[in-house]
């Protein structure tokens, strides 16, 4: 167990048994380090008001729950994706590390220090995730009831260390994420893993987490979303944008596209197959296309692959941007992917990305 924990804390892609790590997400619970996430703290008496003027979603009315939001530039392009959580003394922003630099630079330029201050806490706090059907029962046996609603939060103390517990009902269907001081992470992870094993759980590396992320339809900033994308293209508009909260960076562009226009491409889920093969059967699966592979409809370029993983349950799947008229087509269209002499076929799997629905409702 000590070697497993050491590898987990180092962010190892695999911990020795990839199949068992993947299965833990659906057959019990998987405990994994979220080394892909950073944290920014915003303090000050007017912190919520000042933050509200920068991000796409309303954050002035948060209590016992967080909210998903985007940070845009003035042209409406996505600089970062984030989750905002209120705490007693500050607001904690959970940010992909791939968007952290953009967020800090924007805050330095636009967050008035007389009203609110910010601090990059990515090196002082860490995050771990407990995902799967047994995540909440495991957390209960650990001694704490999980928040019930999506992005619900609870501030707790574990062996004297302050911990923020977050309910994530999107990744793998259910989960509890914990943000804690980095020095407390080894003890916290070891104690949680011992309880998780009583529920059929185990530790899982970043490779299994990436497969489950794509299966769950969760786009990743830095891969599926970058600062070249408009909000509408990403499929996150409904859950991460408020249209009645007032001004924020990029608000005019977002409103214009939403109410009077459209975008030329949409982020879609994809399945990959060998050329001219029947669909569905495992023997027809293609090799994974590389990220950046071009998607074609006949001879026309219609999109680009942004993520691709081999799922033990669903085969080769991924994300990609596809031209709007194809993404919204009611007909099952077979596309061709091509890159450096390799090619295969792709079909849209539930385009475009659908807004998250709380499974408990």
Describe this structure in words.
By secondary structure, this protein is of the alpha+beta class. The protein has two domains: 1-263, Probable tRNA modification gtpase trme, domain 1 (Gyrase A, domain 2, 2-Layer Sandwich); 264-361, Aminomethyltransferase beta-barrel domains (Elongation Factor Tu (Ef-tu), domain 3, Beta Barrel), CATH 2.40.30. It has eleven helices and 17 strands. The strands form three sheets. The chain has a six-stranded mixed β-sheet with strand order 8-9-10-7-1-11. It has a six-stranded antiparallel barrel with strand order 12-15-14-13-16-17. A five-stranded antiparallel β-sheet has the order 3-4-5-2-6. β16 and β17 form a beta hairpin. α1 crosses α6 (185-197) and α2 (18-27) crosses α7 (206-215). It starts with a helix and ends in a 13-residue tail after the last strand. Mean pLDDT is 92; it is low at 355-361.
């Amino acid at each position: 167990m000590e070697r497993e924990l050491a590898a987990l804390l180092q962010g190892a892609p695999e911990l020795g048994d990839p199949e068992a790590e993947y299965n833990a997400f659906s057959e019990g619970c998987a405990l994994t380090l979220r080394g892909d996430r950073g944290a920014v703290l915003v303090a000050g008496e007017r912190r919520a008001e000042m933050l509200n003027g920068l991000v796409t979603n309303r954050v002035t009315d948060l209590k016992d729950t967080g909210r998903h939001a985007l940070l845009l530039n003035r042209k409406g392009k996505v600089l970062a994706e984030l989750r905002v959580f209120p705490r007693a003394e500050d607001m904690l922003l959970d940010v992909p590390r791939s968007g952290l630099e953009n967020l800090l630079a924007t805050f330095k330029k636009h967050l008035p220090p007389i009203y609110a201050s910010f601090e990059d806490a990515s090196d002082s706090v860490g995050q771990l995730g407990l995902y799967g059907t047994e995540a909440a029962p495991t957390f209960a046996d650990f001694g704490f009831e999980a928040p019930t609603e999506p992005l619900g939060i609870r501030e707790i103390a574990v062996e004297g260390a302050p911990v923020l517990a977050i309910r994530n009902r999107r990744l793998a269907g259910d989960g509890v994420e914990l943000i804690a001081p980095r020095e407390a992470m080894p003890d916290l992870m070891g104690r949680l893993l011992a309880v998780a094993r009583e529920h059929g759980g185990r530790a899982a590396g970043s490779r299994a987490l990436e497969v489950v992320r794509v299966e769950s339809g969760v786009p990743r900033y830095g891969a599926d979303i970058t600062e070249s994308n408009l909000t509408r293209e990403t499929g996150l508009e409904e859950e991460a944008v408020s249209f009645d909260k007032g001004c924020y960076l990029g608000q005019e562009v977002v409103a214009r596209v939403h109410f009077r226009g459209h975008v030329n491409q949409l982020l879609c889920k994809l399945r990959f197959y060998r050329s001219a093969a029947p669909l569905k059967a495992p023997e027809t699966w293609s090799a994974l296309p590389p990220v950046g592979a071009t998607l074609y409809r006949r001879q026309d370029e219609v999109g680009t692959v942004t993520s691709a993983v081999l799922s033990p349950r669903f085969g080769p799947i991924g994300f990609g941007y596809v031209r709007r008229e194809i993404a919204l087509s009611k007909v099952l269209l077979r596309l061709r992917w091509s890159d450096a002499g390799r090619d295969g076929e792709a079909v849209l799997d539930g385009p475009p990305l659908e807004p998250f629905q709380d499974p408990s409702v």
